[in-house]
Design a protein that fits this description.
This protein is an alpha+beta fold. It is built from two helices and two strands. It is elongated, with a radius of gyration of 17 Å.
Amino acid sequence: MEWTTDELSHRYEPLPVGAVLGHETHWPHVFAVMKALAGRFGGDGVRLVVAFD
């Protein structure tokens, strides 16, 4: 999908989940650490907070 506002062109392309969270990213390591922490402290004691800029 493409659109133009003022003098800027924009394009939206959906990404498959694997492209963002797949094995070639750092996320599997993050989730493994979270799983280990949950095993030690319980699932209610582990949170992931993410901010996008």
